[in-house]
Amino acid sequence: MSQAAPPVDGAPAATRRRRGRRIPYALLLPALLGLAFLILPLVGLLVRAPWSSLPEQLTSTEVWEALRLSLVCATSATAISMVLGVPLAWLLARTEIPGRRIVRALVTLPLVLPPVVGGVALLLVLGRNGILGRWLDSAFGLTLPFTTTGVVLAEAFVAMPFLVISVEGALRAADPRYEEAAATLGASRLTAFRRVTLPLIAPGIGAGAVLAWARALGEFGATITFAGNFPGRTQTMPLAVYLAMERDPEAAIALSLVLLAVSVAVLAGLRERWLSTT
């Protein structure tokens, strides 16, 4: 019976595995500093939170109005993103349109574009003197800036790319042979998309929708630029935090805790999807 050849370096396999798992100290220190840099501000928020007066802070009329408006606008923006973003993701993933790389770059541009620049761009297009806004105002008497609808549009502008990227990735991972099989059975492309493709990419749509909703909920720059900061009409939670910092820091901390809790809930909701892809 022949014996297995010893390892090249003379060390057993278990020893080599342990050696490979050792953490290089040159990377450990900056890694710990990076972790502390990300965690300490959140810890400071929890430590400095006015826990004794927190119920009073969170039950004020202004807080609930801002929270209600934030939830309504973020949900509406997510709905718009799904209606427009899912077909757009399918176009990028399943077709060979001319200039597809340029289109994808333009779709993802709001991810890196400063939000306040997005707000200015929306004003130039949809404002009363904008390219489309002038026509909307004269033909229908419809004014979008500094309205609740303006908040929804600003949030959808910055949130839709998150959904498009997630759905496009799900479409590329889905096996197109199922759609081809449906087509051989007489199903139209629309029917195959509705009955076959959508169920296959449902987890990707769900993850993208949650990310888009969370991004819309936390939007500040484009909202304040395009919609303003009017209590009860355009003042969402991030805008309320900004305003509270000037007159009542404890209220700002309380509002920040609400947004922090929402963010943690979003991460918890996406945990299973992330674990399934790692």
What can be said about this structure in brief?
With 278 residues, the chain is an all-alpha fold. 76% of the residues lie in helices and 0% in strands. The chain is globular, with a radius of gyration of 25 Å.
Walk me through what this model shows.
With 278 residues, the chain is an all-alpha fold. It is built from 14 helices and no strands. Helix 4 runs parallel beside helix 8 (148-173). The protein is globular.
Shape summary = globular
Radius of gyration: 25 Å
Structural class by sheet pairing and helices: mainly alpha
Q: Approximately how much beta-strand content do the residues carry?
A: under 5%
Low-confidence stretches: none
Alpha carbon gap, first and last residue: 41 Å
Q: Sheet with the most strands?
A: none
Number of helices: 14
Average pLDDT works out at 84
Helix content: over 70%
Tally of strands: 0
Give the H and E element order. HHHHHHHHHHHHHH
How is this fold's topology laid out?
Blueprint: H1 13-21, H2 25-47, H3 54-58, H4 61-94, H5 100-112, H6 115-126, H7 133-140, H8 148-173, H9 177-184, H10 189-200, H11 202-217, H12 221-226, H13 237-247, H14 249-276
Task: List the main descriptive attributes of the protein structure presented here.
mainly alpha
